Amino acid sequence: MPIQTPDPQRLASWLQLLEELPLPVPAEQHERVRRALADNRRSLRDIADLLQDCPTLALAILREANRARMARDNPAESLEVALSRLGLVRATALLESLPSVPAAQMPPALGQMLLISRHAMHQASGLFASRLARLWQEIHWGSLLILAPVWALATARPELLEEWQQQVLGEGRASAEVEQELLGMRLLPLCAALAERWRLPEWIGQGLRLLGEDHELLVRALHLAHAESEPLAQQQRLDADPELARWLTRPANTILLANSLAMAAHQSWGGPHMLRWQRLTALYLQEPLEALQQQVHTLAVESARRDADARYWHPAQALLWPWDSQRWQPRHAPAAATPAPAAGNPGQWRRLCAELLRAPSPFGNLAPLLECAAEALHACGLDRAVLLLADRQQNLLQARRSFGLAPAEQNLQLPVAASQLLRRLLERPARLHLTPANMAEYSALLPGRLKAALPGDHLLLRSLARGQRVVMLVVADRHGHPIGEVQGQAFDKTCQCIERALQQFGAAPAQ
């Protein structure tokens, strides 16, 4: 996780940060919606339909419409109603006030969350909207917007969301523990409070509260869905529990079920979370589990055909192969497959990464492993790099391999105690990308010897662990030139391979 100034630790501080945050709108959609708002031949329904392809703008319009005094007791439940209340002139002014960003420059964490939300909307429309035709707008927009508070977090603090994905989805840590460390509080209460501040549809608030604090009925329903698979047995159990039977008829549950299915599929089609939510959805719809699963798979494929983006993971990709052969990986998770870097020697880079990932480890001692690691970093297009190993007490970082450095810097040694930045990097695996935008913030924290060894305003630092202990720091750059997103991804993938090689080496690196 990039190291930044301390994040707010209380709900009030997070709300102050996120409540008024303007979310970016992709430039292509920004222009398309602007033309539609200026076209007097377009109906409000047409414009609302167009806005489903631009969820951040849909959220902005809905929350702006619900700020009005008249909306306090009757908030808009759909975009068509929100547009009617707001008016096209104010909607256009709101659009012009939002940042317009080329799609390729949208924050990756935000783009991934928006894709999940659109997938959930497609699941909700396919599973529930035709059965509850009078409520289709509430289902449609509620399923899209229930994760909107997370969009704001992904915009303001993308590194926190990526770290959450890494630790919870990638490493299996308890979400409560991770959220307390990263946010200073649980995520669901923050989402519920933001939804209330924005006056999002009531179904959204109900769903978030159900997951966060009022989950007794949800747990009972999950137990029933797990224990009984036959419709007759399920109905008998529900007859004996009228309260649960009434809860299972609530239309508001549809948006929670759709988003839970989309999130579970994002992690794994064959995982226990997916089976749990499929069983509950089948119980809600009173359908056989196998029929429900087939429908969910079909809807995922339709969603991918409509919204898939090569920059992001869509779980429908995993349906093409055995489920465990292709899965989404958090940005920092070790992965056997790596994309080609933007520069350098792609063929050699792939070969070296494959060598690092071989199991059992092909390296007889640490020296050839580090040599292979340095060559891989060079092959991915980096001009200078140094691999520093920590001693057993983590008091000293010492260069063990480097390239591109002046001869006087090749034996670089960095005392850890003298640098708050180094201490943070050695606490747990972390990544820091220095650019001119944040160099002023971190320059004073960088050890002078390190700045002298790799001078410039563009620098990548990443600490690597073996087990629970950080053992290595990798520092690299392109001779001071900017490091693009693709180049940064190649660096990350190479470091993942190095970390995997350290894990498979069989023993902690000898000092």
TrEMBL record:
HDOD domain mapped to chain residues: 23-214
Protein's UniProt name: HD-like signal output (HDOD) domain, no enzymatic activity
Entry coiled-coil feature ranges: none
Gene3D superfamilies given in the database record: Hypothetical protein af1432
Record InterPro entries: HDOD
UniProt-listed Pfam families: HDOD
